[in-house]
Amino acid sequence: MRKKILSALFTFLLFSNVVLAKPNLSDTSAVKVAVLLPMHLDSLFKYGQYRYKNTIPKFALPGLEFYSGVQMAVDALNSEGVNARVEVVDLYKFGALNTLYSFSNPNMPNLVIGVVQNAPELRQVSDKAKEFQIPFISASYPNDGGITNNPFLYITNSTLNVHVKSVAEKVKENSNAKTVVVFVRNGNRDARIQSFLDAAAKDMKKFEFKYVNLTDSFTVNSISQHLDSTNVNYVVGGSLDSRFGARIVKALSSVSASYTTRIFGMPTWDDQDFTKAEYKGVEVVYTTPFVSYTLNPQLYNTLNAEYKKVANSRPSDMFFRGYELTYRYVKNLAANKEKFVNKINEKDYKVFADFNFQPVSNGENKIDFYENDKVYFILKADGVFKSIL
């Protein structure tokens, strides 16, 4: 694994970018795609020497995993004869962004796919996308970063509003109750979640949410007094703090013999390990825009096996995200070069998930950005994946 990754790093070091797919120079019909990744080469290397011996710092892993997925996707596209030029650019290499977005660049991309790691980076790249009128597909958190009036930004990682609205709709669909309990942290620290839930409830007839404020030292009784022993309880964990969410699940587990409960959490809850005995007996549901292991199991298993051959380990979600977004949108662009933005939601090129980009408006008839409003519900019982709802 280390040798493979370090080899990729040295390649990036020697060249400001890596061209993974390069059609004949005389072929002007080929589409051009750039993939911006946070490779951190200026931090990883000093005077051409790798600084971390045989280890890989955590801050470099997302870019490396995504890069591996891009590589494998390009191999698949090449085998299918897709006419495209795909280059990978280190977002953190000095001057790389200005070199890419330049009218003197003979390989100005038709599309940019990227992984950014904070709101300023998202704004910097999306501003370039708007200036040069080149669609930018953002593959990671942060979501919108407060960006407005930029119809060239496409966000795959759905904003909190989409997640919460989807939770509200799914809870109403599952529960026969007219009022559903939402456990929130005391102090209004997750006020946005409450506002989004209330907005969603307004569009539903005879349905509302009841908020139960919990202190940091809440007791099991603070939870159980709101449960019904005669029915399945559908409740919402209204906090982005996954550790706080885990404490709620632990409390629900302690009374699971008397109360059957399914709790709908936030997308941040996916980083919690609910396999421990203290969480057993509770069904936990959370949302995500990215799924791979169930919607195309044959491809998932093939990619898993191929990755293991070269890396001797299991790939991360970022690997599958790199594969999925590269394969899907490079192929889509190659087939619909002039009409790409109008056909960006075409399902003919679907890999794992459905991405459904819809315009988000600021109320002034201007598009702030396009957002993927499709999320999936992952159901886990005793920490083990059960199904997609």
Explain this structure.
With 389 residues, the protein is an alpha/beta fold. The protein has 2 domains: 2-158 and 293-355, Response regulator (Rossmann fold); 160-288 and 377-388, Response regulator (Rossmann fold), CATH 3.40.50.2300. The chain has helices at 2-14, 41-44, 61-79, 96-100, 119-132, 160-174, 191-202, 220-224, 242-254, 297-311, 317-335; strands at 17-21, 31-37, 45-46, 49-50, 84-90, 111-114, 136-138, 153-155, 179-185, 208-214, 233-237, 261-264, 283-288, 357-361, 367-372, 376-381, 384-388. The strands form 3 sheets. Strands 1-5-2-6-7-8-15-14 form an 8-stranded mixed sheet, with helices on both faces. Strands 10-9-11-12-13-16-17 form a 7-stranded mixed sheet, with helices on both faces. A two-stranded antiparallel sheet has the order 3-4. Helix 3 (61-79) packs across helix 11 (317-335) and helix 6 (160-174) crosses helix 7. The longest helix is centred in the first third of the chain and has 19 residues, at 61-79. It is globular, with a radius of gyration of 23 Å. The mean pLDDT is 89.
